[in-house]
């Protein structure tokens, strides 16, 4: 009886959460760590290859989203902080439905050059990474420790729409605590941004 009930519950959960859309919770391992993705440099890189000695920051972004524009300076600062603390940085463009427009690979290269990216900016073909991470907005951030375990996911801070109204810098605090060897106090936060443009 218990086995039948367990199987019924498992089936219900699987049906409710299609493959690739199961939320990635703190403590989860880095998805697709060794799969290769095309960077704007023309080289193929993996998330494991991009990881630093203290971990990896993955940011889902895009070229035209107004929230990316509002967060550009904050993104630059937080990525510099990550690099300074030996945390690798990868920005991911999963906007497959916009490849013929503002999120083409050539547009990504131009965007990276315009903003002087000092980190990887990869094209997520068929939004495979976005599905694996259950990422839905730009910008949306995922911080992993040196063991490739998720310690924080969510927004850069508590005011994505207005830099002047920021009270809590969630991602900065998470990086500081991670590098200090402390548990991350706030491991999740709500994200606000443009929807990732999947082809479905």
From TrEMBL:
Key words of the record: Signal
Domain Thioredoxin: start-end pairs: 24-180
Signal peptide: 1-19
UniProt-listed SUPFAM superfamilies: Thioredoxin-like
Transmembrane stretches, start-end: none
PANTHER family hit by this protein: OS07G0260300 PROTEIN, THIOREDOXIN-DEPENDENT PEROXIREDOXIN
Protein's name according to its UniProt entry: Redoxin family protein
Organism: Chitinophaga oryzae
């Amino acid at each position: 009886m218990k086995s039948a009930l367990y199987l019924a519950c498992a089936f219900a959960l699987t049906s409710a959460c299609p493959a690739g859309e199961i939320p990635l919770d703190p403590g989860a391992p880095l998805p697709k760590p060794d799969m290769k993705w095309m960077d704007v440099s023309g080289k193929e890189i993996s998330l494991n290859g991009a990881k630093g000695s203290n971990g990896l920051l993955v940011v889902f972004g895009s070229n035209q989203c107004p929230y990316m524009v509002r967060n550009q300076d904050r993104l630059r600062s937080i990525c510099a902080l990550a690099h300074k603390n030996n945390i690798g940085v990868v920005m991911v463009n999963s906007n497959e439905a916009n490849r013929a427009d503002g999120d083409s690979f050539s547009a990504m290269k131009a965007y990276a050059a315009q903003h002087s990216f000092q980190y990887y900016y990869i094209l997520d073909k068929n939004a495979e990474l976005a599905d694996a991470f259950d990422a839905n907005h730009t910008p949306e951030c995922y911080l992993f420790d040196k063991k490739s375990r998720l310690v924080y996911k969510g927004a850069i801070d508590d005011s994505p729409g207005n830099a002047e109204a920021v009270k809590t810098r969630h991602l900065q605090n998470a990086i500081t605590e991670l590098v200090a060897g402390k548990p991350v106090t706030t491991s999740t936060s709500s994200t606000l941004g443009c929807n990732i443009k999947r082809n479905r």
